[in-house]
Amino acid sequence: MKKRERNASLAQSISGELRCPHCHESMEVKDLKSLVCINNHTFDFAKQGYVNMLKKPVNTQYDDALFDSRERIISDVDLYGPIHDRIAEIIMKKSLRDGVLFDAGSGEGSHLNKILHKIDGDMLTGIGLDISKEGVLMAAKNYAGYVWVVGDLANPPLAGDSCKFILNFLSPANYSEFTRILTGDGIIIKVIPGSSYLKELRNELFSSTGESEYENNDTLELMKRNVTVVSEERITYTKSLNAVGLKDLITMSPLGWHADDSQTADFIRRGDKDITVDMHIVVAVSK
C-alpha cells in the first residue's frame, strides 16, 4: 500500500471527527484517495500522504531551511526532550482511551512524533495541522502513522467534541475553535516560553533592543480569559549546542530572522554554548 493510501486509511478510521472547511458538514474518505463531504467538496491526498484543506493558498515566511533546522533541533539534538517527557506524562495520567491528539500548529511534525513515541500503546491518533504546506509536506515525508493536514487554525477541519487532547507548542492559539473541538473531558496543553528562554541569543544578538527580554504575561492572560487553567508548571534547563546546532537554532527561531549577520556568524563560530530552555506547560479545560 502506498503512503497516500496508508494515510487515507488512517484518516478513514477517524473520518467521523472531521468536517469540511467550506460547509462544515461531515466527511468521508473515498477510494483511499480523497476526503469528500456530503456537498461534494473534495480534498485529495498528496502522494506524500498529507491532505491540503485550506480554502485558498497562503504564503508564509517559513521555508524548507527553517523546517530542516527545526527537525534537527527537535529530533536529533533533542533540545525539548524534558518538555516532551512531561507532556507525555500529563497525557498518560489523563487517559489513554481511544481519542485524538491534535497538534495545533504542528510545523514539520517533530513535536507530535516525539510525544506520541513516549506514550504506551496506540490508543491515540495524532493529527498535525499547520498553515505551512512546506512544513506539513516534510512531516508527511518523515513521520508515518499520523494524519497531516495543511489547514487554518481559524477554521480547522475538525468536528465539535472531536479532540481529547490539543497540543499548542510555541504556536498561536485560537481558543474559540479549541473549545469547540475539545471533548467534554479533554484538555488543552499549551507550551509558552519563559523569560529565560534562549536568553543567550537574546543577550548576545539583541542586547541593545527590546528583543533582549521576554515576558509571557500577555499570552497567559489571553489564555485565562478564554479557557480555565487547571495547572501550570515551569521547566528550565540548559543544553550544550555545537556550532552546527547553534546555526540550526538561529535559523529556526524568529529571534534569528532580524539579527545582524556578522554578530550571528561570530556567535555560531564560537560554538559549544549552553543554551537555556525555559518553558511553561499550561493545562486548561473549556470554561
UniProtKB/TrEMBL annotation:
S-adenosyl-L-methionine binds at residues 80, 108-109, 197. Residues 19-58 form the 23S rRNA (guanine(745)-N(1))-methyltransferase N-terminal domain. InterPro entries: RlmA_N, rRNA_m1G-MeTrfase_A_prd, SAM-dependent_MTases_sf. Pfam families: Zn_ribbon_RlmA. The keyword Zinc applies. The keyword Transferase applies. SUPFAM superfamilies: S-adenosyl-L-methionine-dependent methyltransferases. One of its GO terms (molecular function) is methyltransferase activity. One of its GO terms (biological process) is methylation. Zn(2+) binds at residues 20, 23, 37, 41. Keywords: Metal-binding, Methyltransferase, S-adenosyl-L-methionine, Transferase, Zinc. This is 23S rRNA (Guanine(748)-N(1))-methyltransferase. It comes from Jeotgalicoccus saudimassiliensis. The lineage of its organism: Bacteria, Bacillati, Bacillota, Bacilli, Bacillales.
